[in-house]
Amino acid sequence: MKTRPATNWRPWWRLANLLWLPVLLASASCRPEPPAPPAVPEELRHPAWEGETMGSFYHVRLADSPLTRSQLEALQKAVQERLDEVNRQMSHYRPDSELSRFNAHASTAPFKVSAEFARVTRMALELHAQSGGAFDPTLGPLINLWGFGQQGETQKAPSKEEVEKTLRITGCRHLRVTDRDELQKDLPELQLNLSAVAKGFGVDEAARIIRARGVRNLMVEIGGEVVAFGHNPRGRPWRIGIDEPVAGALPGEFLRQALSLSDQAVATSGDYRKFFADADGRRYSHILDPATGYPTRHELASVTVVADTCLRADGLATTLFALGPEHGLAFIEKQTNASAFFMVRETNGGFRRFASSRFPRLEKVE
């Protein structure tokens, strides 16, 4: 209700207003209370859903979502479609993916790829250069040789001759990305494997689509790689557990520590899920040393990285594991917007735990 400036009122007007005030109050008190707005259902205010992608599962959780039911359904469809597209671009299991078609392209002629595929490959090559070669996305033939690729598992280590022969057709020096989003190799047999960064990229893409709909509070996870923005349904930072690196354990089965995450991503790399042991009991993990062609040989069991994007966290986690605990710690301390937590096996069966200087404070999981 508009009122005239007090300077225009006459004294008798003030008196009249005071006389009318009890009448107005009495009238207002007789009016029925307006109905309360209907409560927003929990499944709309804090929706959660899951699906399949990249040979794994993904989970999405929103908090204080502004979306209607129809908007939420459209968002769920858009997220699934984008993840399907990333899989069509970077899967090394799908014969029709961009990556598989490039690997089958036994030629040194340029090969046109999508802008996203080119961007992720550029990032992988940059990480290779920064790490002195510890991160290498061209190890696909070696990964297959050791039984960790699309050709199936093995329980037997390959011969020295097989490793040396396969090692000769790897190396980032044989690969470049042109300004026209083309991949070009000078070794026709060269193959690309982006499994160390594809899930992280998928997480970032799913989060990008969700945030574009006006959602500010969300958590996206694919196969253990996570990005979180804003707050959880309790109004607090998202709480992300860190698995104990126990061989054969399921995700979340052994949680001892957790960290609070907001506007950041987290990824873990370890040797406790993908490995095999030969007849002599020697363990071989899926993370290979690009210099030797053999699985890494150190006591690092897992490393968890927090970074500004999940693509970067994913790639850095693999890099640090390949470098080992000491070199990995030195490397991560030089990175901006990134930190790491290491768990190293000890002879008594326990773990030595340490973190880089900027790693978030850890909380005990009861």
Walkthrough of the structure:
The protein has a domain at 98-185: T-fold (Orthogonal Bundle). A hairpin with a 5-residue loop joins strand 11 and strand 12. Helix 3 (69-90) runs antiparallel to helix 8 (198-212), helix 8 packs antiparallel against helix 9 and helix 9 (310-323) runs antiparallel to helix 10 (325-333). The longest helix has 22 residues, at 69-90. It is an alpha+beta fold and 366 residues long. The protein has helices spanning 11-29, 42-45, 69-90, 98-104, 115-130, 140-145, 160-167, 198-212, 310-323, 325-333; strands spanning 48-53, 56-62, 111-112, 175-177, 182-185, 218-222, 225-229, 238-243, 255-261, 264-270, 275-277, 283-285, 300-307, 338-345, 351-355, 362-364. It contains ten helices and 16 strands. The strands form four sheets. It has an eight-stranded antiparallel β-sheet. A three-stranded antiparallel β-sheet has the order 3-5-4, covered by helices on one side. Strands 8-9-16 form a three-stranded antiparallel β-sheet, with no helix packed on it. Helices cover 33% and strands 22% of the residues. The N and C termini lie far apart (56 Å).
Please give a quick description of this structure.
By secondary structure, this protein is an alpha+beta fold. The chain has helices spanning 11-29, 42-45, 69-90, 98-104, 115-130, 140-145, 160-167, 198-212, 310-323, 325-333; strands spanning 48-53, 56-62, 111-112, 175-177, 182-185, 218-222, 225-229, 238-243, 255-261, 264-270, 275-277, 283-285, 300-307, 338-345, 351-355, 362-364. The termini are far apart.
